[in-house]
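User: Before I run my own analysis I want an independent prediction to cross-check against. Here's the chain; please return only the structure tokens and, at the end, one sentence I can use as a sanity check.
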Amino acid sequence: MGSPTYDYSDETVIVTGGSSGIGRAIATRYGAAGATVIVADVRENPKDVGETIPTHERIIEQGGEAEFVETDVSDPDEIESVVAAAHEFGGVDVMVNNAGLFVEGDFVDVSPEDFDRIFAVNTKGVFFGTQAAASDMLERGEPGNILNTASISSNVAQHGQVQYDATKGAVRMITRGTALELAEHGIRVNAVAPGQIATEFVDGLAEQMKEDARTGGFLKPIPLGRPGYPEDIAGAALFLTSEAAGYVTGELLHVDGGWQIC
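Assistant: Structure tokens:
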């Protein structure tokens, strides 16, 4: 089986939610490919079990260039600040809007406060992250790439997740709409839709998913027979923002082991 290689030398990549999980895997993969990576997150230290070294330090340790900028993506001003930080390295070339929040609960029990909180991060963060990055690219007259983290929930409803599903459905349409508007400027916008990924997005989720894969305890079978891992999403991310995907925009790429086909 072939092993693709990517060269992101001389490119600056911002990864929101890059301290842990999928964001950490994406950020370190870009760092290994030669990019200067700005890790934007509300926390510097990773949540991943067994990981203690912050993502930007890990990238530097591995010979790359990176820095951390504390960022709350629910605040558009803070998103503007992290995009401005990219100017030190020539401006943002790739914006990965990955930061996300999961709030589970029965529809009838969701409070206005929980609703506002999850939309502020998952939807508002993606919308204004895309806007800030695109504005920077347009001002510099440079083409670029924007990648959003959507979900299988962008297309499929799941029990106890109406509020989460709604945010990810919005991410799908933000991706498609901005791809349409920005195409003439050479800015591509795509999204990855992770399936059942073993991360600490919810405390204890990673180990539970590994156990479910071993025992067949998934509520719905995964054709490839295992949960996904953050590295699975990282590979898709680098592909979508590379020249190999130069004719792809407005796409929602499912990375779910075949979950949505059965």
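Sanity check: The mean pLDDT is 92.
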